[in-house]
C-alpha cells in the first residue's frame, strides 16, 4: 500500500475510534511510537496521520508534543443566507470566470459570458475557517432587494477541504444563493459551503 494511502487510512481509523469514544475530547492519544507499533507502520506514517488530523481540527497539540482529542467545534445556525459575516474574512480569489451552463442558468444569461468572481473564506474569531463563499455576477455589482436559496450537500474538493480543515470528499452543506433586483431578475449568484459538523441550517 502506498505511504500516502497508509497514513490517510490510519487517520480515518483514528477518527473512527475517537467517534466511538475510545479517546474522549481533551484526552491524550498514544504516542506516535505506540500507535506505529499497533498499526505495524513507521512512526513517520503516524506523524503524517496526526498532522492531517490536526489540520482537520480532530486533534489539538503542537508538532513533537503530546496530542489530544479536540473538543467539538462550536455549532452555528444559518438562518439568513444574505446576512453579512460578523467576523473577519479573507478574499482568496477574484479572477473573472466564463459562465458555465449552470451559472448561466442561475443568472439568466448565455453560457460563455465573462463573469466577475469573488471567493471569500469566512473566519471564526479564533481564526478557523467557518464557511467558504464563491460569488459570480456580470458587469458591476448591482443592488438587490431579496434573494432565494436552495440547500443541498456536496463533497469537498481538495482546495475547499484544505481551507476548511477537512478531508477531501467530506460532505458539506451547499447553499445556492441568488440575489434578485426589484424586477425579480438575478443580479448575483453564490455558493456557500458550510461544514456539516459546525452548522445547522434553518431557512
Describe the fold and architecture.
The chain is an alpha+beta fold. The protein has two domains: 67 residues, Winged helix-like DNA-binding domain superfamily/Winged helix DNA-binding domain (Arc Repressor Mutant, subunit A, Orthogonal Bundle); 126 residues, 3-Layer(aba) Sandwich (Chorismate lyase), CATH 3.40.1410.10. It is 26% helix and 33% strand. The chain contains five helices and eleven strands; from the N terminus they run αααβββββαβββαβββ. The strands form three sheets. Strands 4, 5, 6, 7, 8, 9 and 10 form a seven-stranded antiparallel β-sheet that branches. Strands 1-2 form a two-stranded antiparallel ribbon. α1 crosses α3 and α2 packs across α3. The chain is elongated and about 65 Å long. The mean pLDDT is 90.
In short:
With 203 residues, the protein is α+β, with helices and mostly antiparallel strands.
Unreliable residue stretches: none
Helix-strand category = alpha+beta
- What would the principal axes of the Cα set say about the shape? elongated
Output the CATH homologous superfamily of the largest domain. Answer: Chorismate lyase-like
What pattern of helices and strands is seen along the backbone? Answer: HHHEEEEEHEEEHEEE
Number of strands: 11
What is the helix fraction of residues, given as a range?
A: 25-40%
Taking the sheet with the most strands, its summary is: 7 strands, antiparallel
Taken together, the total number of domains comes to 2
**In CATH terms, what is the fold-level topology of the largest domain?**
Chorismate lyase
Rg computed from alpha carbons, rounded to a whole number of angstroms: 20 Å
Share in β-strands: 25-35%
Distance separating the two termini:
45 Å
Q: Using the coordinates above, name the CATH class of the largest domain.
A: Alpha Beta
Mean pLDDT: 90
CATH architecture identity of the largest domain: 3-Layer(aba) Sandwich
Total number of helical segments?
A: 5
Amino acid at each position: 500500500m502506498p505511504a500516502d494511502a497508509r497514513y490517510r487510512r490510519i487517520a480515518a481509523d483514528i477518527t473512527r475510534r475517537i467517534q466511538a469514544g475510545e479517546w474522549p475530547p481533551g484526552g491524550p492519544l498514544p504516542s506516535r511510537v505506540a500507535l506505529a507499533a499497533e498499526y505495524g507502520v513507521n512512526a513517520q506514517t503516524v506523524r503524517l496521520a496526526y498532522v492531517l488530523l490536526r489540520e482537520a481540527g480532530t486533534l489539538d497539540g503542537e508538532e513533537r508534543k503530546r496530542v489530544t482529542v479536540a473538543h467539538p467545534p462550536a455549532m452555528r445556525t444559518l438562518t439568513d443566507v444574505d446576512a453579512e459575516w460578523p467576523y473577519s474574512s479573507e478574499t482568496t480569489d477574484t479572477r473573472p470566470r466564463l459562465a458555465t451552463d449552470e451559472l448561466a442558468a442561475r443568472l439568466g444569461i448565455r453560457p460563455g459570458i465573462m463573469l466577475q468572481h469573488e471567493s471569500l473564506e469566512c473566519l471564526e474569531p479564533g481564526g478557523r475557517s467557518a464557511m467558504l463563499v464563491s460569488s459570480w455576477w456580470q458587469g458591476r455589482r448591482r443592488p438587490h432587494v431579496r434573494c432565494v436559496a436552495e440547500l443541498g450537500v456536496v463533497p469537498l474538493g481538495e482546495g475547499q477541504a484544505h481551507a476548511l480543515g477537512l478531508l477531501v470528499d467530506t460532505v458539506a452543506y451547499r447553499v445556492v444563493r441568488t440575489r434578485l433586483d426589484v424586477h425579480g431578475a438575478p443580479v448575483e449568484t453564490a455558493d456557500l459551503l458550510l461544514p456539516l459538523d459546525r452548522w445547522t441550517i434553518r431557512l
